[in-house]
């Protein structure tokens, strides 16, 4: 699959210590396993002139104090707390190659962020998704992209999960409902 780098962005979802480092609060071994393939993809895309966007899940300590129903700390325990080691990008990723970093406070990187406007202002139409977790933030962000008429392409070998079943479910659901699934080796830039 050949993509125009001027119209393409790699979206690296939440590759942070709490998810991708063994000492992280919500460590998923599948997330650590995709660090190297994501780093390679980011370098290749950036060298070709494609945009690179990193999302960073960040929760102020008081974010859910007044929550009626939606409370990630209740669901998952405290994680990626603002200004903590857990919220930092995991070592081994070329985060310095990012053209933009989106701080988000929920599963969907489009929810109450500038991501859609940033992409649209640059004429970006095709989004290559990688990162973690497959069935949570990657799935919700990619689905939201599809609803906004971007082309979501999920790169199976660059997406981490807690369990293999979660990875398989997310990719099958995405391909069935709103996007495409490929391996990163299938991607080239025109």
From TrEMBL:
Keywords of the record: Hydrolase
Domain of life: Archaea
Record-annotated Isochorismatase-like domain positions: 8-182
MF terms in GO: hydrolase activity
Pfam families, per database record: Isochorismatase (PF00857)
The protein's name in its UniProt record: Isochorismatase hydrolase
Source organism per UniProt: Halovivax asiaticus JCM 14624
Taxonomic placement: Archaea, Methanobacteriati, Methanobacteriota, Stenosarchaea group, Halobacteria
